[in-house]
Amino acid sequence: MKSRSVLVTGAAHRVGASIVKLLHEQGANIILHYRSSKAAAQVIADDLNRQRENSVVLLAADLSNPHSYSQLIENSVNCFGGLDVLVNNASSFYPTPVNEATLDQWDDLMSSNLKAPFFLAQAASSHLAKNQGCIINIVDIHADKPLKGHPIYCMAKAGLVMMTKALAKELGPMIRVNAVAPGAILWPEGMEAEIKSEIMERTALKRKGDPHDIAKAVLYLARDADYMTGQIMAIDGGRSLNL
Hints:
Number of helices: 7
Strand order of the largest sheet: 3-2-1-4-5-6-7
Strand content: 5-15%
Low-confidence stretches: none
């Protein structure tokens, strides 16, 4: 990954932050995108830039604004003179029971989980092709088997799975497009201990994963998977066997 330029969206917290730290450790130059979490993003950037000077740049953008897509890519390319990897990690997640779901929720979940990744890929494709780069989408095991109470989120992530496969055909052979599907990695805020235990019991490995597990999968797809495109890697401890 030495000197490769990587844009990670939604990277100030949680899985995105772990992806940034591991790819940076492996030598990548990072464009760390955030929407509103400037303070958290700055802490990560300052720490990593102390380790390797001028290796992380922060870019703010509201991905619900369609005018932000091309600008974010243009600014990213200008940071290090090109773009090698786009990681579509930014996502919204919350319940939308079918009898309570609103148009605003539909627009928000579809925008963050599907619309933004597509149009960022579109804007980045010419730059990625120059470097035979790749796109990595963060999807969800519930794109295949839905999570009760979250129909819009699951539909959006299912669309992102199909987008991964469709763009692998559209953008090959110059650009590889793959996805990572996390399982139980980080608990939603307020989840009861009993539910956590039930979820872990449904995994083959009887435990939850860690954001670093997702970061390692992203690193593999970016660095090592030269003959792999259009694929979805489930990092879920075997949970998808027993959903």
